[in-house]
Structures are given as C-alpha cells and as structure tokens.
User: Fold Diacylglycerol O-acyltransferase from Rhodococcus triatomae.
Amino acid sequence: MTNRLSAQDASFYFLEAGSTPMHVGSLAVFQTPRGGFDYEHLLRLVEERLRLVPRYRQKVREVAFGLARPVWVDDRDFDIEYHVRRSALPRPGSDAQLHDLVARLISRPLDNTRPLWEMYLVEGLSRGRFAIFTKSHSALVDGESALDIGHVIIDAEKHPDRLDEELWMPAAEPGTATLVAGALTEMIARPAEAVSAVRGAASDVASMFAGTAQVVEKAAAVLRTATSSAPSNPLNAPISRSRRYAVAKTELDDYRKIRARYDCEINDVILAVVTGALRNWLLSRGEPVTEATTVRAMVPISVYPDVEEAESGPVRGRPPVEDSDQERGRVSSFLIDLPVGEPNTVVQLSHVAHATAEFERQSQRVTAQTMMRLSGFAPATLHAMGARAASSFSQRMFNLMITNAPGPQAPMFVGGARMLEMYPVSPLLKNQTLSIALTSYDGRVYYGLNADRDAMSDVDVVAALLYESLEELSDASR
Assistant:
C-alpha cells in the first residue's frame, strides 16, 4: 500500500525555498566516558535504533505531473554512513567554534534524493567533550507516526539493554506507472483532494495548508490573538540561506523562584525574559522604542506542567504511562504581543502572564501524548511540531517564533556518555531573521538562537541580553 505524505508533510516538502531550509535540529554536548566514544560506536547505536523510526530509512518520491502528493518509499540504497557523519574541531575546540560549525551545518540543505536527515559526531571539544548534532526535515518529523532520530538514541541509563538484531529488507519501490495509476484512482475517489494536489503542483503551496488545520490541532490548540499584520521591526527582513547560531544556558531554579514569587507559569517567566532581552536589543540598535512598542511572537509549543518535575518523561524500554499521567504536560499554540516598550521587568511579566491566562480561558488545551511515547524524551520532536504549528499562520502575522519544549530533569546518556547540555535549533521562516527555541534539561534551561547571518549579525548580543534580562527579573523578585 502506498504511504502518501500527509497534506502537511507535503506542505513542508514543497515549502522549502532557497533561503528557508525547513529542517529542525538539536545540539547535544557530552562528556567522553572512560572507555571512550568514537564514530563506530555512534554508528552501531543509530543502526540498532533505526527500527524505532522506520521513516528514517525512507525517501520522498514525487508523483509524475503532480497528480497527487508525494509518497514515502524505502531507500533501497540506504547508506547509514552517508547520514551519520564525522566532523572535528581543532583541539582544544571552543564552544564558539562549535556554534560556528552548527551554523554552517544548519545552512546546508538536505539531499531530497535520500532520507531527509543527517547526524554529525563532532570531536575535538575542550575538556574531554564531544557533541552530536542532528537535523531532520520538518516533513519527516510529525510528532505522531515519526519522531526525531535524536531521541531514540538517548537513554536514562548509562548501560541500557541492547535491542535484538534486526534484518531490514527494503520494500520494492513502486514504478512511475503504479504511482500515476494510484493517483488517478484517488482523484476519482476523492476529487476535492485531487484539486488540492493539482494546485500544489502549480506552486500554489499556500492552498495546501487548508487541509492541515486538523493535523495542527492535534499538536496544539490554536488561538489567533490578532488578525492584523505584525509590528514593523528588524526581526522581519529578506533573509539568505546562511545562518548564525548562538546559545544561552540558565538555571531552571531561577525561573521557579520567580514563578513562585509572582504566582505565574514558568513559561510566562521565559517569555518575560525574552521580552526584556528583545527590548534591550532594539535599544542597542538605536531602534525607536516607545511605551506602546510590541514584538509579536508565535509560541507554537507552550508547556504548562502541573507538577514540579513534569518535565520528565519515560525512557526507552519502559512501558508507556497511564492516561492519568498524560495530564502532566500540555501543549498549546498562540500569538502574543511581547511588551518590549515597557521598561519595568515585573510589569512585563504581568502583561505576559495576563495574556497567557486569557488564552487558557478561551482555548481547549490538548494533552501532549507525544511526550509520553516511545523512547526517552523528545524535545526535538516537539520543536518540529512547533514549526508545523507556526507555519499554519501567515508569517505577516508575527515577528518571530519561540518554541519551548521541556526535557528530562535527570542525567541522560548516549552510548554510556553523559549528556551535559542540549540546545534546540528551530528553522527560520520566510522574512524572519530570528527564531528562539529552548529546552529544559537536568536543572537548566538551554536557549538556541538561529539567525540569518547578514540581517542578524548581532545575534550574540541577544544571547547575552537573555542573561541580563533573567538577572534583572530575579533581582526584582527578591
């Protein structure tokens, strides 16, 4: 049976343009274990776990004349060494050099003649560390039938049980005539869908989003808080393919203390910290900032944990949690005007908390069951879902995307190596110069800032201002 791309998968596949590669990524830094960790070790681990994400052995095959959406087919020439790659920094490699490497890797498009993912082992980091960077096309990771490759190689135990060996045999790839015949059959059975496919073939990709609303709602409850265009500011400009990447590492306890002091959500505190940083960044650029100035953010993944350690999830090999436990995390999506014109950090937090509370009253939260599936935790998968939700909105409606996905609050391992840090990478959308993604892990909150190399050359300034904004809010809450 033909496994056709969903309407939203196809939207992402065709949406990719020269300046907007639509892949999501994840950068994880590890401490090299006493027994060492090398490329062959990672290769064996990925090969063992690929059965958990079978789509990672499949490629996209388009249908002649655009008669129907493309299909997923097994890659009969699948070469794991093409997808799992090796890189190195000149020893001792610095964090700045690592982030420059990630920026270059983000900028490169994926090969659409092969399965749409890559993984890099980065050796040579200082202090006995190494890194693993993964990137997967947004069409590949849907949060339901396909999860990110990064989360199936992460374990809660240093030495987990190995999976049984599996012999993978690719299915025969359908011929052109078979795909055309299948498309014609579907056109007769579902003529409305056929019209949508023909429009997509005519490059009217926007029309394909009409059929994606139900898919997006499975990942988020969407509330369109505004119908007007987003405010004008430097966050929106024509962009190139080249990227810059910056990070910030903060303590989760700082957010918890502020949350307790002002009776709000951790996500409110995070958005207030971003608000303060963006305000000071605009001022550093000499931009006019008045009391009424705002920056409109799309927050596709907003997690509101009900208990202190709700950021934790199950691990590979453990049975799924019961339905009652699935209420621990919820995913929502909304537009919010960040009050960057307000100079007082506490007032900024008040405005943000009021806006999110209003959203909660008017929308139906959707349980994040994806957080409880398969192996370990899936921050990268949730960030991919966030990009999907954001793309269902017109980019003219918001200035930037902010995705927030919780991670486990206990040490995690890959092949016996302890994960020290984990930074997400969310894609840039058309004419948007910055995207901010963050993940909590083992007592810290990690920010990943993906920016256009030319339009956002000062992204490091934004990263530094995140620390300053958090410190200012922490001081005010004492």
Notes: Residues 197-226, 302-331, 364-377 have pLDDT under 50 and may be disordered. The first helix runs from residue 7 to 15. The chain has two domains: 3-152, 213-476.
